[in-house]
Amino acid sequence: MTVILYGIKNCDTVKKARKWLEQAGVDYHFKDHRADGLDPAQLDHWLSVLGHEALVNKRGTTWRALSDEQKATLGPDTAAALLLANPAMIKRPLLNIDGELHLGFKPELYASLFNQ
After folding, report:
1. What PANTHER family is this protein classified in (predicted)?
2. Which class for 60: exposed (0-12), middle (13-18), buried (19 or more C-beta within 10 A)?
């Protein structure tokens, strides 16, 4: 099983997810959007599977700092460029288990995914 956790290392929710995975003994690889960068093709895949409404974090400071025009024009055709320019706007954590994508962290969800 290949498990990759995507996020930003200083995000509290990502920290909780990493701690859960470690305590459950799950072998995973962590990729930091900021430190490791984003692969545009991978981002396009995430957008096609999850959709821009799910993938864009509208609760964070990065979203609030955008202009009203940027917020108003967010859509399927503009999301990739916006997220590449602002990787902190990707909802996190994003968990990839053998190609299956899961957004966010809830202990009960992770327990069900890993039969804990």
Report:
1. ARSENATE REDUCTASE, PROTEIN YFFB
2. middle
